[in-house]
Amino acid sequence: MTSLQHAVITWYRAHARALPWRSPGTTAWEVLLSEVMSQQTPVARVAPIWEQWRERWPTPAHFAQAGRDEVLRAWGRLGYPRRALRLHECAAEIVRRFDGEVPAEVEDLLSLPGIGEYTARAVACFHFGRNVPVVDTNVRRVYRRAVEGAYLPGTASKRELAQVGALLPEHDGPTFSVGLMELGALVCTAASPDCPACPLRTRCAWVAAGSPQPTEEEKKRRRVQKYTGTDRHARGTIMALLRGSDAPITQAQIDVAWPDAAQRSRALFGLIDDGLAEQLADGTFRLPR
């Protein structure tokens, strides 16, 4: 084991967050739920929803039997609700093709609806102990800084899987993988890395280069689009109305909730196109059944 691998594993064992899905006895289904829910969503918002879901739908079979409206209500304000519907499709496929058990191999996981490279590898690695590279934004950033000396990662590519895969130790590979991710989440952050607390400081290529600050191009990539007033905000407002009502809602209710007519129309019919809402014959709207 190299000094880099040893440093990451040792640091992780001392500093890992006590996330609920890391507890002993967590099932593969629960790990899959946590990974999908955590995409582009802070852990603090995910944890209570995850706890509710694992109690309500403890297996893929339980979840596959739920109505789509139930699923979308339970998703709440986690954001990007299409993830919830894709999870629903995923559960049905697990029941149909894998006897209700989440598969352990990356290729099988990738064949499921809504499961991409990251999620498939995360479940295979973190639950089933497969020694495969797992690359998310945090891992990409740690690799880019520690190995290549750049402030932020460039465009994502499959080449990164091979690069990170080359770092995996023969033993404790899954611990190293989750350690890289945790290091990026807690220490080697995008805006303000805490270099004095980093176990890779003495071997970090970015620190050795004098910790160069981001270029204008990197600053542009790092900027996060505002939420207030956007089409996403309009969609979220309409979804909140739909989730909060047992009966179909009227166009007048939607008009009051979001006064910008053009944006409201885009948001509403975008939700319908995405299968997140449906219009009834009387012109009212509801969650899909």
TrEMBL record:
Q: What's its EC?
A: 3.2.2.31
> What is the enzyme's main class?
hydrolase
**Classification via Pfam families:** HHH, HhH-GPD
Q: Which family does it belong to?
A: Belongs to the Nth/MutY family.
The record's annotation in Gene3D superfamilies points to: Helix-hairpin-Helix base-excision DNA repair enzymes (C-terminal) (1.10.1670.10), Hypothetical protein, domain 2 (1.10.340.30)
Question: What PANTHER family does its record include?
Answer: ADENINE DNA GLYCOSYLASE
UniProt keywords (A-Z) are: DNA damage, DNA repair, Glycosidase, Hydrolase, Iron, Iron-sulfur, Metal-binding
- Cofactor(s) annotated in UniProt: [4Fe-4S] cluster
Q: How is this protein named in the record? A: Adenine DNA glycosylase
Instruction: Tell me the ranges covered by the HhH-GPD domain, including all copies.
Output: 37-186
**Reaction equations catalysed:** Hydrolyzes free adenine bases from 7,8-dihydro-8-oxoguanine:adenine mismatched double-stranded DNA, leaving an apurinic site
Query: Looking at the record's lineage, which domain of life comes first?
Result: Bacteria
